[in-house]
Amino acid sequence: MDLKDLEVFCEAARRSSFAGASLEIGTTSAHISKRIAILESQLGVRLFHRTTRRVVITEDGERAYQWAQRILDDANAMSEAFSSAKKEPSGPLRIATSQRLGREHVAPILSALGKRYPRIEVWLELMDRRVDLITENFDLDIRVGDPTQPRLIAQRMVESRRILCASPDYLAQHGHPKTVAELAEHECLLFRERDQPFGNWRLMGPRGMEAVKVTSRFSSNHSDVVRGWSIDGKGICLLSIWDVAQPLVEGRVMRVLPAYHEPADIWAMTSTRTAGSAKVRVCVEFLKKQLANGPHALNINPEVPRS
Q1: What are the two backbone dihedrals, phi and then psi, of residue 96, each rounded to the nearest 5 degrees?
Q2: Does domain 161-263 have CATH number 3.40.190.290?
């Protein structure tokens, strides 16, 4: 049984499409169909129900998928074990992260990683949802905030927090809230990062954790959009401190309720399947170092001028 055929089958199963699998692998739908037909003949079962528009995995196909994934994982683990022994990390590395963190920080750091380890092949996917590392076949997820998730291993990369900010014009017109509860009376710009609760702000302060339900006419899943609205005087935002560091330094926004923040550390999430991989290990170590101190590091301690 050819391992390549198992890879083709797993890709088609994940995408429920021969065409989608062919685009991912870089071949034709006809080739995908031929290789799966050979695998079906070897196993003596039908793996997919085929229609003119899509393919649907059969019950036997589901069982075969679990076996195939385990076989491929074991083969990759064997390769990684010997690669690690030679200290030459290699192979494809699939990474997921959120939009701005990925675009402004993770992507250029991975570019430097590629120069240091030329045998590593990087695939970076930016998305506004939490991925399933196992079923979607990712090696690593770089995420902000709560790392708790069954079957995954979390490694803290950078200690960080979300803070409240607004423009001087907004605060001059609407006043400074004195308590967390008063935020409900203000325009609060809503940013939903992946699976972050929408409109429910939980802030840590002198009296412990305090929660408030906020609303606004303006909301987005892109932090740079929300940051721009805040600078433009549309309301109060709750964003990662590194996300608003530059406008804070420039005085275009000011801290609101500076004694309060929302914990928002940066975490590297791996599965038990990939945690011991040499390529994953060097990537996590490199990202951790560069996010803290490199040229594309997160600015978590901006020097804000005193008013």
Answers
A1: -120, 150
A2: yes
Stretch among 6-10, 129-133, 289-293 having the lowest mean pLDDT? 129-133
Residues 70, 246: Cα–Cα separation, whole Å: 47
Is pLDDT above 90 for 24?
Answer: no
- Work out the pLDDT band at 80, boundaries 50, 70, 90: low
Tokens linked to 152: 């995954």
Q: How many helices and strands, by DSSP H and E, does the chain display?
A: 10, 15
**Fold of the domain built from segment(s) 87-141+270-293:** D-Maltodextrin-Binding Protein; domain 2 (3.40.190)
Q: How many CB atoms lie within 10 A of CB 237?
A: 29
CB 120 within 8 A of CB 83: no
Report the distance separating Cα 88 and Cα 46, nearest Å: 40
- Is the CB of residue 65 less than 8 Å from the CB of residue 9? yes
Q: Which amino acid, one-letter code, is at 6?
A: L
For the chain, the farthest-separated pair of C-alpha atoms sits apart, in whole angstroms, at 76
pTM flag (> 0.85): no
Fold exhibited by the domain 3-83: Arc Repressor Mutant, subunit A (1.10.10)
**Residue extents of the structural domains in the chain:** 3-83, 87-141+270-293, 161-263
**Tens digit of pLDDT for each residue in 164-207?**
999 999 999 999 999 999 999 999 999 876 555 567 899 999 99
Question: Would you tell me the crossing angle of helices 278-293 and 107-116 to the nearest 10 degrees?
Answer: 130
Same fold? 3-83, 161-263: no
Give the alpha-carbon dihedral of 146, 152, 156, 158, to 10 degrees: -60
- Classify residue 79 by its DSSP letter: H
State which H helix or E strand residue 116 sits in: helix 107-116
Q: pLDDT exceeding 90 applies to what percent of the chain?
A: 58
